[in-house]
Backbone:
């Protein structure tokens, strides 16, 4: 092992690193994955759950591009549920509680069986930089590896400081070593670095919990599946989750402990991510609520450790102990790991391009928590894109990334490099303006064809996708060709189901547009016959959402001109008359690539966008004059 | 804080000889202008009587100087206002002095444009300024003033606020389904939807009035030949524009007159008399008449009072009423009441609230007709809250209403939260064409400050 040359090097074996390495290798690039510890490949360092609202959308998109996260989830999920099942397909989401060990195993299995991928346990200490380009890495042992592209996914709590009560110490997630030489090295480079904070709940020994007094929350039947290639048969044994609640007594205990809270005594400034408030935060800010829900989630089949979701806290350990024991079912609970708040570094994602290549150093890509995101799904999504673009760059190909209307992947990347972030970035469906198009049920229809042409999709997945695509078309054809005459027996049967009776000849596809009519009913009355499966669902959504989807498509079309209007690299915002200093400063900070991106920067008003456009037009005119 | 840009100047008062003349300067060179002309930069926002002095030291005029430093000025830039004597010669002299100081003439509307670009006013307000400038009447001016002060913007904002708060709720239900907020089961959403639809209807109604106020109402004179349509047009406009003869079928072409009734702008349209057509020209005239009738804000159906005693529209001219798209726009006007000899009949007619009796010949009843037209326009009800609105605003409001109504249907028919949410998003998008934008990040911020969510 000496001075080896690869196409792509991926540093870090977390969720971003594994997707990046797997994607690059799938595309046929000789890929090296360097990790501090092969045992922790695919480690779920926080709550072992995958998916949820907005997040399962990302997981399914990763899957549609041949990634590993969904497949591993189907191998490791011990509790599957569909969230928002009744609120419409666009916001429906899949969530799985997983077994930490099984998940790790599944990831490792995938990586070890991935052709073109080399795994190596080495701590990377430095980058090899030639001029403005990264050409390789140096490890702690002094080994040197060279590559056309390098992906860094080393962001798990860089420079972490952990707070429990008024005590604090340096440290990473759950016992991991905090920062490393590489992080220090990165700080010397011209990247903007800032700090984020987050927190976690204490873990509880399940043997000391009385589940019998809690509300039981079983997984859904039939068991939902995460991967387009997966099935419930892949799933291990399923176990239930539980729900309990805090009460007035809990809240009193917390209030009495606030004078020793790092959050409320100013030791940590700010209060952490808004979507994941600590329990003390919730009690202060929503003081009229006398109870909060706590999800009691198992960490695996072979461990007794319990994750009390909703109880994130950094109060001193004795207060944590008291507040836990005031909760129903936790009266005798023993804490096996205290909860804590953690502050850590991230690199401002606005220093990245859409490809996730850094703006300052060529051939260097950042993915995962290093960019200010939180969550396995967000990390995996970035890893996949960084891996794809690292591979493409190694072949001198143009970058590829989805637009905001093509995937949550596109929303994620565009948000990060346009808005930056001041709290750990987490995906929500409300971030996606084209939510009706970006559903978890159609991620494959949105992305797999592109994935195939990118070289990410192996034959089996491609075949299965083509079958599905063709079946959808075939069934639509059949429905469109089947006519119902008014007054007939079939029409009479249907009239009992619909509000407005059938007054003229309709084909079944038209009828499907009506509320409360589904493919199953149409099959029943018409005598057509095929299995009730997810293909029917696709047909139905296509038909029922048609108007909305085409309206969103029009919206996309309308904005396309702005999106395609590139802002020149050398644009001097100082020279554009009329821009306020504030807007100018924001544009300088982000350095948007297109007019569309500029319009999404907060504080950049429509008036400012018009000024930019006018400036571009004037300049184009001048150039034309010159060249003429 | 603001960018350096050239300094502009304009005479702010209308051209011609007036009591006072105001010159307004805006931009970075404003202070320099003040120092040259007044010898100093005046104390901000204090009226000061002073000499206006030319470069050669001669006193050009005397008057009030007002200085508004950026950003607290109308344009957001340094602004100087010189109020001198209104004569054009003096104003021109001062202008010349200022233009020599690296200042240029402002384009029409450029002060408002700068105010808009510097976020001092929103688009609706910028347009209101334009309306204020060319408003043809005092009432319209008052309406424009109200819009300028943000009455319209405020009404829209109130509604947008309700919409945002509903969206916040719906989006929270979607993104945080495990948080014990569930809109499908609690029926609250439907109540709030109806509430917003109610608000929208009110604003829309007022905005329609506002648009009429700005653009003027179109009143079409229609009826059988020879009932006196052209005579009434002449009477109302006070001009002898239309040919009047005793021959039925005199008028063929449409004849338009723009008149002000006590400052209220009206577009009067005289049309060909309606009858079973005789000849190509008249048929074409009748076709055009119908086109106008269908588009009118108000239709006056004229009847010859000496020929018919009928008061009710459907009796007066049934074939006409049948074809009319909107009966609410119709007023029956009985003309030639001077020919009614039967006193009792006339009395009964005058007491009827359904018709208006006039004589285009003598001018009898014309005031009552004017009064009627004013009230049709909501003119009498014009109070403090009235604002002018543009077609653009009406379109946006109507779009918003349609989206919300569709969202409501989706909620009821299919309980589809995602489609409800989409319609609310589109509705808000429509409304922000009037006021300003609202991003997904803003929405999330609202959710987090409103609901206790997050695990
Ligand atoms: N006595 C009397 N005669 C009127 C009055 N109004 C109109 N006339 C007469 O009625 C005749 C027709 O008047 P016009 O104004 O030309 O009628 P019109 O409805 O425009 O007729 P067409 O254009 O032919 O459809 C003329 O001789 C007018 O002088 C009225 O109020 N009293
Ligand atoms: Mg006439």
Residues:
């Amino acid at each position: 092992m000496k001075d080896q040359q690869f196409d792509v090097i991926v540093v870090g074996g977390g969720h971003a690193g594994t997707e990046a390495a797997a994607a690059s290798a799938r595309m046929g690039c000789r890929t090296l994955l360097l990790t501090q510890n092969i045992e922790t490949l695919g480690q779920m360092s926080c709550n072992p759950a995958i998916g949820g609202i907005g997040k399962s959308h990302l997981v399914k998109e990763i899957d549609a591009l041949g990634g590993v996260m969904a497949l591993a989830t189907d191998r490791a999920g011990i509790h599957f549920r569909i969230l928002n099942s009744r609120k419409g397909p666009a916001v429906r989401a899949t969530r799985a509680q997983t077994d930490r060990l099984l998940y790790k195993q599944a990831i490792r299995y995938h990586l070890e069986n991935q052709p073109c991928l080399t795994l190596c346990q080495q701590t990377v200490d430095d980058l090899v930089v030639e001029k403005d380009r990264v050409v390789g890495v140096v490890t702690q042992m002094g080994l040197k590896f060279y590559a056309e592209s390098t992906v860094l996914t080393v962001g798990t709590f860089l420079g972490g400081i952990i707070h429990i009560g008024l005590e604090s110490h340096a440290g990473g997630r759950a016992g991991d070593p905090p920062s490393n030489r590489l992080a220090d090295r990165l700080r010397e480079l011209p990247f903007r670095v800032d700090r984020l904070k987050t927190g976690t709940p204490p873990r509880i020994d399940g043997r000391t919990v009385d589940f019998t007094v809690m509300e039981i929350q079983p997984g859904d039947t039939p068991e939902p599946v995460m991967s387009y290639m997966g099935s419930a048969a892949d799933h291990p044994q399923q176990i239930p989750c539980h729900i309990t609640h805090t009460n007035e007594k809990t809240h009193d205990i917390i209030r009495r402990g606030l004078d020793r809270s790092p959050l409320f005594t100013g030791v940590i400034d700010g209060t952490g991510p808004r979507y994941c408030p600590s329990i003390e935060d919730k009690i202060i800010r929503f003081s009229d609520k006398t109870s909060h829900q706590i999800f009691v989630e198992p960490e695996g089949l072979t461990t007794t450790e319990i994750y009390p979701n909703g109880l994130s806290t950094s109060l001193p350990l004795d207060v944590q102990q008291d507040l836990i024991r005031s909760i129903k079912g936790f009266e005798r609970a023993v804490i096996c790991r205290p909860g804590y708040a953690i502050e850590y570094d991230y690199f401002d994602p606005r220093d990245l391009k859409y490809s996730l290549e850094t703006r300052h150093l060529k051939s260097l890509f950042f993915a995962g928590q290093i960019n200010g995101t939180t969550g396995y799904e967000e990390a995996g999504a970035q890893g996949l894109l960084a891996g794809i673009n690292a591979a493409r760059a190694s072949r001198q190909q143009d970058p590829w990334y989805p637009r905001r209307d093509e995937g949550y992947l596109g929303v994620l990347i565009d948000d990060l490099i346009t808005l930056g972030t001041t709290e750990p970035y987490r995906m929500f469906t409300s971030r996606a303006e084209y939510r009706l198009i970006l559903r978890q049920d159609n991620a494959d229809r949105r992305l797999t064809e592109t994935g195939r042409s990118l070289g990410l999709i192996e034959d089996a997945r491609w075949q299965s996708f083509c079958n599905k695509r063709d079946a959808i078309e075939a069934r639509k054809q059949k429905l469109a060709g089947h006519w119902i005459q008014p007054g007939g027996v079939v029409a009479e049967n249907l009239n009992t189901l619909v509000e407005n009776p059938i007054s003229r000849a309709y084909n079944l596809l038209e009828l499907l547009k009506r509320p409360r009519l589904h493919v199953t009913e149409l099959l029943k009355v018409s005598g057509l016959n095929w299995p009730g499966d997810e293909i029917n669902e696709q047909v139905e959504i296509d038909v029922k959402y048609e108007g909305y989807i085409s309206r969103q498509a029009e919206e996309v079309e309308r904005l396309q001109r702005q999106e395609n209007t590139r802002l020149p690299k050398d644009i001097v915002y100082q020279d554009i008359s009329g821009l306020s200093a504030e807007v100018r400063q924001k544009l300088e900070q982000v350095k948007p690539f297109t007019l569309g991106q500029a319009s999404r920067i907060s504080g950049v008003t429509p008036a400012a966008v018009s000024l930019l456009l006018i400036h571009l037009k004037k300049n184009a005119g001048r150039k034309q004059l010159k060249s003429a | 804080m603001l960018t350096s840009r050239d300094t502009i100047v304009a005479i702010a008062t209308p051209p011609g000889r007036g009591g006072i003349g105001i010159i307004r300067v805006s931009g970075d060179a404003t202070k320099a202008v003040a120092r040259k002309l007044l010898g100093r930069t005046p104390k901000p926002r204090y009226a000061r009587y002073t000499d206006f002095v030319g470069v050669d030291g001669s006193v050009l005029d005397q008057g009030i100087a007002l200085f508004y430093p950026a950003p607290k000025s109308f344009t957001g830039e340094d602004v100087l206002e010189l109020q001198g004597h209104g004569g054009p010669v003096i104003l021109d002299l001062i202008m010349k002095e200022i233009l020599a100081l690296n200042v240029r003439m402002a384009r029409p509307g450029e002060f408002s444009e700068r105010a808009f670009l510097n976020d001092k006013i929103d688009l609706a307000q910028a347009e209101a300024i334009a309306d204020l400038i060319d408003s043809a009447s005092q009432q319209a001016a008052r309406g424009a003033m109200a819009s300028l002060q943000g009455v319209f913007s405020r009404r829209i904002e109130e509604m947008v606020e309700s919409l945002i708060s509903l969206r916040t709720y719906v989006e929270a239900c979607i993104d945080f389904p495990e948080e014990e907020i569930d809109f499908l089961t609690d029926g609250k959403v439907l109540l709030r939807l109806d509430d917003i639809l109610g608000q929208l209807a009110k604003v829309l109604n007022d905005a329609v009035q506002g648009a009429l106020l700005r653009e003027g109402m179109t009143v079409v004179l229609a009826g059988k030949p020879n009932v006196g349509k052209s005579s009434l047009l002449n009477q109302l406009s006070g001009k002898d524009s239309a040919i009047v003869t005793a021959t039925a079928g005199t008028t063929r072409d449409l004849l338009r007159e723009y008149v002000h009734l006590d400052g209220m702008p009206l577009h009067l349209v005289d049309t060909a008399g309606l009858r079973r057509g005789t000849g190509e020209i008249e048929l074409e005239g009748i076709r055009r008449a119908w086109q106008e009738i269908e588009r009118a804000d108000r239709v006056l159906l004229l009847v010859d009072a000496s020929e018919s005693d009928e008061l009710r529209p459907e009796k007066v001219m049934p074939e006409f009423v049948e074809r009319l798209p909107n009966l609410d726009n119709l007023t029956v006007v009985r003309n030639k009441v001077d020919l009614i000899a039967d006193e009792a009949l006339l009395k009964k007619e005058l007491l009827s609230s359904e018709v208006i009796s006039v004589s285009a010949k003598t001018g009898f009843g014309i005031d009552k007709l004017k009064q009627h037209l004013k009230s049709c326009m909501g003119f009498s009800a014009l109070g403090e809250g009235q604002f002018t609105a543009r077609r653009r605003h009406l379109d946006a409001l109507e779009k918003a209403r349609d989206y919300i109504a569709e969202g409501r249907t989706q909620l009821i028919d299919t309980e589809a939260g995602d489609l409800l949410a989409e319609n609310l998003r589109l509705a808000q998008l429509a409304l922000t064409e009037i006021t300003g934008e609202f991003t997904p990040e803003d929405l999330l911020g609202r959710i987090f400050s409103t609901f206790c969510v997050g695990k």
About this structure: Residues 624-628 of chain A have pLDDT under 50 and may be disordered. The radius of gyration of chain A is 26 Å.
